[in-house]
């Protein structure tokens, strides 16, 4: 029964009781009067009838006013106080009531605020003790998470249903692909590994592991090779076992072997070319030699012809070998570990080593442009230090200049000095000297072998115009591997793991019966050219973030700008700040919406005032070829369900966030609003549970009954 209805019934009962008591008192008084007194009373009432009617009307008006005050002020204030106490108790202990209404209700609000202060302080003390108690456990958990996050290998951990519950940044980079393409699903917590890698390969590997577990094999590990976005990935799979030895998931370690396979294929082709191409020449040489051995008395003219055959075939064989070796020289040496390094850092390392080992002064001119190299910095510094020591002695110099410059796709490192030039023959001798500084050899490495290992060149030259001599080292220039943008410091360490997902059930047809706290959500927001989707306004920005297992995953976000086909209204530009110039080079909606569709797959869509955003998406279905069929929740409707006593204006996103203790950052940007909406959603879930709304079905059915659900766009 509604509070107002219950209060009206109580008030009506009191009214009837009061009228009955007054009637009974009047009846007793009338019986006690004498006939003469009764006659006199009738005369007085008859003469004063009009006055009595007016007095009765005034009394009725006063009673009606009092009734209205009781019916409106007290029940409404009581309901509001009840809702706000729930916020303090369940969501935001720092929230305080704003006393309003009659004096008694204001005093009650002030008393409750005093109680809330005490409650908040006690909550802080309890939380501090809990945090201290769980500190060690959390520390161990964070150590494991940090270790996995910083591993150089690509690692994923999945539960038995194939849901990803742990991954590291390397896996994100390795498995990144076109989100709009088949198999282009991004990596994320709670997503299915089968949307990233071929399901049949993983299933076969799991069967192998189960068989080896049944056989009690020492290392129940499986291997397979998978293709992903044009790359070949070598996967090693190992089971995750519980305390009873039962498999509860598996670990995948991935390695990109595309380059290795390509090199091996080229090496096999080279060997085939050398063997097939050399067979005929060797056969001709062998036949000529055997003929000469069989006929030792052959005349000189014939002997000369056979000798010429041997010479010609040997020359062709030598030429073929040299051509093959020059084209495929990179395949013949053993691979050597190289590291990405700024050329300026290499110059600084040379400067320090020259000063410490040789006592040479060096002036550096490295420029401001970052030049990247892939080098074995230790070997380069050591061999150059050895050569520079010999050069300083031979050319009698104690001061060296160093310059960095670009030559096409290469970086040239020039060591210059004045005075006596360097004899090129000396440089050739030094190129062959084994590295030996301070009595420590380096496996026979020489300047020539180290430079060749890097695919570089070294030479000396005389610059007559500048009056200086130079020793030049030229190395291939590279582009460093692109790293993901760092998160803001306030966001803390990215969440790449969720161990609770070991017990997460798979995606099933009973999605409606899943508790709200266990669902995976894609919380999104859009910015548009205007507020009328039916009149042709379009989306110009989509921002989204994922919520999995009750956790907001800030690093798993979607943020795209879109080039519209119609102008942006001035009113909209003032709100979101996006101008036509900012969107001129952005992709159209036909490219972005399929990518967002893949990002939001297998999740519940959530937005604030979702009818507005969903209308824009629905109007683009035919144009883009994607349809969003998953369930949708609206935090506007959920707020109305959690706080029915609040006014319409108090269900705006900013007001809800303030009430629930959510900090509003990046308002009126698509991604910023999506993050705020996601945090509001997490705060609303326990409040909805108090009102009997626990699962998705209950939330959807209750939302349909709210007044806001009738708004159309």
3D architecture notes:
- This protein has 713 residues and is an alpha+beta fold.
- The protein has 5 domains: 3-131, no CATH class; 138-256, PAS domain (Beta-Lactamase, 2-Layer Sandwich), CATH 3.30.450.20; 261-331, Helix Hairpins, CATH 1.10.287; 339-478, Heat Shock Protein 90, CATH 3.30.565; 512-710, Nucleotidyltransferase, domain 5 (2-Layer Sandwich), CATH 3.30.420.
- It contains 22 helices and 19 strands.
- The strands form 4 sheets. Strands 6, 7, 8, 9, 10, 13 and 14 form a 7-stranded mixed β-sheet that branches. Strands 2-1-5-4-3 form a 5-stranded antiparallel β-sheet.
- β16 and β17 (551-561) form a beta hairpin.
- The radius of gyration is 42 Å and the shape is elongated.
- Mean pLDDT is 80; it is low at 437-442, 486-494 and 504-508.
- Residues 105-150 form a coiled coil.
- It is an enzyme of class 2 (transferase).
- GO terms for molecular function: 3'-5' exonuclease activity; DNA binding; DNA-directed DNA polymerase activity; kinase activity.
- Its EC number is 2.7.7.7.
- DNA polymerase III is a complex, multichain enzyme responsible for most of the replicative synthesis in bacteria. The epsilon subunit contain the editing function and is a proofreading 3'-5' exonuclease.
């Amino acid at each position: 029964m509604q509070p107002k209805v219950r209060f009206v019934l109580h008030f009506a009962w009191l009214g009837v009781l009061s009228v009955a008591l007054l009637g009974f008192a009047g009846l007793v008084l009338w019986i006690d009067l004498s006939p003469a007194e009764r006659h006199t009373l009738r005369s007085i009432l008859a003469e004063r009838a009009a006055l009595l009617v007016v007095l009765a009307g005034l009394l009725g008006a006063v009673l009606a006013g009092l009734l209205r005050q009781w019916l409106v002020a007290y029940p409404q204030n009581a309901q509001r106080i009840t809702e706000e106490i729930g916020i303090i108790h369940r969501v935001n202990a720092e929230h305080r009531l704003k006393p309003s209404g009659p004096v008694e209700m204001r005093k009650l609000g002030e008393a409750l605020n005093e109680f809330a202060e005490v409650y908040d302080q006690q909550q802080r003390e309890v939380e501090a003790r809990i945090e201290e108690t769980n500190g060690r456990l959390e520390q161990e958990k964070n150590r494991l998470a940090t270790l996995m996050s910083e591993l150089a290998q690509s690692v994923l951990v999945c539960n038995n249903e194939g849901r990803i519950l742990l991954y590291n940044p390397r896996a994100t980079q390795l498995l990144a692909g076109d989100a709009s393409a088949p198999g282009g699903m991004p990596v994320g917590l709670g997503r299915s590994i089968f949307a990233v890698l071929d399901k049949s390969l993983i299933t076969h590997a799991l069967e192998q592991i189960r068989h080896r577990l049944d056989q009690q094999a020492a290392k129940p590990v499986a291997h397979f090779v998978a293709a992903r976005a044009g790359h070949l990935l070598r996967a090693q799979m190992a089971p995750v076992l519980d305390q009873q030895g039962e498999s509860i998931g598996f670990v995948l370690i991935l390695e990109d072997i595309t380059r290795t396979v390509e090199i091996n294929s080229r090496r096999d082709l080279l060997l085939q070319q050398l063997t097939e191409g050399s067979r005929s020449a060797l056969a001709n040489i062998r036949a000529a030699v055997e003929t000469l051995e069989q006929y030792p008395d052959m005349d000189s003219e014939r002997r000369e012809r056979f000798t010429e055959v041997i010479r010609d075939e040997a020359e062709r064989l030598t030429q073929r070998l040299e051509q093959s070796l020059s084209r495929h020289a990179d395949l013949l040496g053993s691979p050597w570990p190289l590291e990405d390094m700024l050329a300026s850092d290499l110059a600084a390392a040379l400067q320090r080593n020259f000063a410490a080992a040789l006592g040479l002064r060096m002036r550096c001119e490295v420029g401001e442009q970052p030049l990247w190299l892939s080098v074995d910095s230790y070997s380069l510094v050591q061999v150059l230090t050895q050569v520079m020591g010999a050069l300083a002695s031979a050319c009698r110099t104690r001061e060296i200049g160093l310059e960095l410059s670009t030559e096409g796709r290469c970086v040239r490192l020039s060591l210059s000095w004045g005075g006596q030039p360097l004899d090129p023959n000396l440089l050739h001798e030094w190129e062959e000297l084994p590295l030996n500084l301070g009595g420590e050899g380096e496996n026979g490495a020489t300047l020539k072998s180290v430079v060749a290992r890097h695919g570089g060149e070294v030479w000396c030259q005389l610059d007559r115009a500048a009056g200086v001599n130079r020793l030049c080292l030229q190395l291939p220039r590279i582009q460093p591997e692109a790293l993901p943008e760092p998160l803001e410091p306030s966001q803390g360490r990215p969440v790449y793991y969720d161990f609770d997902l070991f017990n997460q059930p798979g995606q099933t047809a009973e999605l409606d019966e899943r508790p709200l706290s266990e669902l995976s959500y894609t919380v999104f927001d859009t910015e548009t050219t205007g507020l009328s989707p039916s009149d042709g306004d379009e989306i110009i920005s989509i921002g989204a973030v994922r919520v999995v297992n009750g956790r907001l995953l800030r690093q798993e976000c979607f943020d795209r700008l879109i080039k519209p086909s119609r102008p942006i209204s001035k009113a909209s530009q003032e709100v979101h700040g996006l101008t036509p110039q900012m969107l001129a080079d952005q992709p159209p909606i036909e490219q972005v919406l399929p990518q967002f569709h893949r990002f939001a797959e297998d999740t519940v869509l959530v937005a604030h005032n979702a009818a507005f955003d969903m209308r824009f998406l629905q109007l683009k279905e035919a144009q883009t070829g994607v349809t969003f069929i998953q369930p949708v929740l609206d935090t506007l409707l959920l707020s109305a369900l959690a706080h029915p006593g609040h006014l319409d204006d108090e269900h705006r996103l900013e007001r809800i966030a303030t009430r629930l203790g959510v900090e509003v950052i990046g308002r009126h940007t698509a991604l910023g609003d999506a993050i705020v909406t996601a945090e509001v959603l997490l705060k609303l879930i326990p409040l909805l549970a108090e009102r009997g709304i626990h699962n998705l079905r209950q939330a959807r059915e209750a939302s349909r009954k709210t007044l806001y659900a009738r708004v159309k766009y």
